[in-house]
Request: fold
Amino acid sequence: MRSKKFLKTIVTIIASITLFVPFVSADEAYYTNMNGATLNKEQYDRLVKEFGYNTVATMTPYQIDEIKNVKDFHTQEEIKYIKTISYYNKAGELIQSSNLEVTKEEFEKLDNNLYLPNAGSVSAEINGRILTIKVRSNGGETRIVTLNNKWKSIPSVKSFDVLAIRPGGSNFYTKFIDGQYSGYQAYDNQLIAYNSTTGKDNFNFDFGTDNELDGDEGIGLSQNIVNSTQTSLENEMTIYFARNVKGFLVYGTYQHAVKDVTLTQSKKYDIHYSGFGSVVRFDSSIKSSYDASSGVQITYTYPDDDLFL
Reply:
């Protein structure tokens, strides 16, 4: 009899514990990014795997809402490895800067910040950057373009650098989606977000009425490189475009300031095919302050693009 009562008590306790175990919904907020966009765990894991933590952390709520339930993306990318050489005089003033595309193997062998004396009066700073452009889509009209620049070592000049994206070719049917743009600067395990709320003044919009792009228009972003940066530096911008015809040609460039400039000066450009990297055409008053680096381009085609006209 005693054993039966004991067993009954255990069953009652187990039932009580089961009754009060909290129910965790699959839609419960697991993560909130820097701009207040929320994701459940499944959404967070999937998007971080596809875009990376820094991109997800700095996207706008509009951008997150557009993609949080997308299961699969079709992605294409182009990568360019760039060797930079900057020559300085005794006073530390820039004399000349050059950029050369190299192979991945050559890039990995670059000596970071190696200064080479020349005739006792000129020194050369050698550095490298990885410039990547990615286009993603899950079908439909939206094309998500990400331009990323990653430094091999920290540049000696830290001022307002410029990232810019230009859809090219016959882009009569391409539109910039308002509110669907963001960017970040990641340095020494720190993260700065740029978007329609936190960094609106840093963006430079160059397109016609109703956000339509004609092939010589796009969007740029000025980022003030943090002076205290010592160990790592990465810059990125992500833009959503609407595209409803087959194929999508897009250009991207990263222009490094080789002299100290202000935010206002860094925005003295328009988007044009004749500019640096086939994207950024600086005003003559500021043109020499940038390294005139080449850009990267990609023609993206979704597998079902044949369905479009």
